[in-house]
Amino acid sequence: MVYNMENEVKIVVKWSGKEYEICNLSESDSVGTLKSAIHKETGVRPERQKLLNLKLKGKTPEDGCQLSTLKLKQGFKVMMMGSLEEDIADASAPPEDIPDVVNDLDIEDEEVAIESREVYLAKIERRVREYKINILNEPRPGKKLLVLDIDYTLYDHRSSAETGYELMRPFLHEFLTSAYEDYDIVIWSATSMKWIEEKMKLLGVSTHSDYKVVFYLDNLAMISIFTPKYGVVQVKPLGVIWGKFDQYSSRNTIMFDDIRRNFLMNPGNGLKIRPFKQAHLNRDKDRELLRLAKYLKDIVHEEDFNSLDHKHWEKYRPRKKDKHTVKKEAGNSGDNRDTSGAR
């Protein structure tokens, strides 16, 4: 490659699986000028750009910082995160394929016997055989499973905002970071996979460094069932996951969703979360995820989640260990120390 100017700077931007060469910059240009040039090449507006490895003394440089102070080598590759305006608009608008929400107050009356009906179990078996799961991060041995809805659970998808990030439920990343210590995390939304992927990218979930999502499930993994009161409704049967992964079962799985009907095939494993709506009014006072993070910590040592009543999760108190258990654990701890110190 031939450079015509002594102080010319050429940078390669890696974004969305592609590389873009940014030319016609000089060392006297600023980071803001670089962002404008990136905008011309990629379509991502400067305020949407997050240049991950562009650093000055370990910190992200200001827009007014001159490129000469960064001492970049010719052809330096910059990793960028950012969304196009049309993608943000798609993710901020209600999806066309979202199912109608039925009155959910009395849905628990329908729970009796539905989960054991052969016709619905056959549908689950078909999903296990035919539904393809894209593994994002490998399941970790010994971890329990947390399955999360998106709309009104993690995100207010009906309110308007300049950025989707403003509609994120408070303490989302703190909650997921805490849960990840003990649980594998799966996202299941009653909409399309494209919508899920864009929403997780918009919220910063898919690229967060403190936790990982094992996989996403969309509306195609759901099944339809008939209830006398509401007719045909779509539900999220956890049996689809249990049929594909031996390490997960009703004993170690919990699902959060703002709609109780989604639990009809596994009522004992569902926790109905308070919906997060009117984000601008409730952002400063919503503490639901902080309380649920504590609940997940409290129950993680339960051997069988079937023994829990998630409808009354706020009243749950961890069981106190008896003296025999405490003494046994202390003995095991001592054995471990002796073993690790042996030569």
TrEMBL record:
Alphabetical list of NCBIfam families matching this protein: HAD_IIID1 (TIGR02245)
Residues covered by the Ubiquitin-like domain: 9-81
Cofactor: Mg(2+)
Catalytic activity field: O-phospho-L-seryl-[protein] + H2O = L-seryl-[protein] + phosphate; O-phospho-L-threonyl-[protein] + H2O = L-threonyl-[protein] + phosphate
EC number: 3.1.3.16
SMART domains named among the record's database cross-references: CPDc, UBQ
Localization annotation: Nucleus
FCP1 homology domain ranges (all copies): 139-299
Region (Disordered), start-end ranges: 316-343
Protein name per Swiss-Prot or TrEMBL: Ubiquitin-like domain-containing CTD phosphatase 1
UniProt source species: Cryptotermes secundus
Taxonomic lineage of the native organism: Eukaryota, Metazoa, Ecdysozoa, Arthropoda, Hexapoda
GO biological process, one term: regulation of proteasome assembly
